[in-house]
Amino acid sequence: MSEALAIDALTKCYGDVAAVDDLSFAAPRGRILGFLGPNGAGKTTTLRMVLGLIKPTSGWIRVLGEEDAAKVRSRIGFLPEERGLYRRMTPVNAITFLAGLKGMKAEHARRRAIELLESQGLGEAKHRQIRLLSKGMAQKVQLLSAIVHEPELVILDEPFSGLDPVNQLSLEALIRSIAARGATVIFSTHVMQHAERLCDQVVLLAAGRKVFDGTVEAARKVAPRSVVLEGAFGMDALSDLPGLNGLTLERLDGGVLRIVAMLDPSVPAQVVLGAVFAKGLPMDRFELREPNLHEAFILLTASRSEAGSA
């Protein structure tokens, strides 16, 4: 079977409120999927339904070929949004203990725990109580506890929350290594930069409904490109340039004006540049910027919000 997770028409209602509304998507095996959306979009509710922690109102879920996640629990690794470890245990003992709950023998689990801790720069802390570790170190220990048994499907709920930039990059590298051995990784986040760097596929949620499902590149194309112009000219000089919308400006030193404008998709950047030269504008900089995932995300979630309030 090519799919580690398949969801169809999944809905979860609390009274008259649909926390998740008719959601469908599939996560192929061996891929990294970003499950994205603002806070309250329904990400955590969906992941809890996938794991069988709460029951859907309607729809179906298939995890590693089974409709009941409990049947494949030993093949799943899960990092919940709410962190929690036994604070007086050491990292090596905590990981070994949780590995035992997944069916690993104690000797193998302990050896594997030490290997993981050392690979993540936590070797010197392996016998220190977790309550004495930094937040980033403790979070790494909990993540290692979720993958110690080498699961086929790894689900991480807001794994980057609260981590400093160095630990975020370290976690990104760990996620890549998990996928490199053939596992499927699904992680939820509302920070687009992580998804942009990591994901083969992104699913965007807004107000409980899916607004996009595809590659990062395809998502970026939803948003228009922008143009940056800098030079010692006035705003009136740009008044009749073709294809520029939503101009923002900034005054720089030396009387230089920086303009950032959205480019109409029907107007090639070369046409704008040609018009600049034709007007003889004193241009110091002309840059075409491709949209990023954050810009696409804002556009897609805003469209969903407007549709929901209409």
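^ that was protein a. below is b, sequence first then the tokens
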Amino acid sequence: MPEAQPAHHPAQEQDRQPGLRSEMEPKPRSEMRHYRAAGKLEGRAALITGGDSGIGRAVAIGFAKEGADVAIVYLDEHEDAASTKALVEEQGRRCITIAGDVGDEAFCKDAVARTVSALGKLDLLVNNAAEQHPQERLEDISTEQLERTFRTNILAMFYVTKAALAHLPNGAAIVNSTSVTAYRGSPHLIDYAATKGAIVAFTRSLAENLTERRIRVNAVAPGPVWTPLIPASFPAEHVAQFGEKTFLGRPAEPDEIAPSYVFLASDDAICMTGQVLHPNGGEIVGG
């Protein structure tokens, strides 16, 4: 059994976004050390955006444990990406890392092309990259911030998925990262929550659109999760109380969220498309 994590984390914050795992205390559990695989993704190839740390890192390692080769797309957290690559390769799977801005459509096309060139094919796509910038009032959200958040969080999903569809075969799976904020809102993350709501609609609409091509499209809507995005987004005093109101009394660990992605990517979820899983620490959403 994994060791229990503390209900409260030390007050901390980072002055850059994306955040860095190396600067967090304690480090998030995102190495899937206790995950038991069953060959669910044997021989498949996956592209994961935001795969250097946090949920994306745990998903990459979980996919590798299940038998998939992995391409990790990230912005500029080179040390974190190299660490994740090494952990994927520990599982005997291939891994490539691709640095760049998913808000740039040309980069997204290139990332997909490099993935297919290196891994030989593409079967699984995880759209996970995101950013958030808390603001107290709507008036405090600049046009620059608004456009940047939408470009990274939802426009990038259009860019990457459009490029990937030229390669995804029948039986492929797409998994998108949304959030509990899509369902209950967030007074300090208005633009972020709006993008996450858009991701839910994107997931449901694309799932219907791709039914005849037998490509499943689902999403995961985590609640509070201990990832580098948290100290990179919030002041130290908020970080110290982050996630304490959940059923767990603490934020989830990435390792506790990643199995939802593995399930949706695998044939175990063959009857599921256009759906959202809610590993959110016990919050009731959607009625």
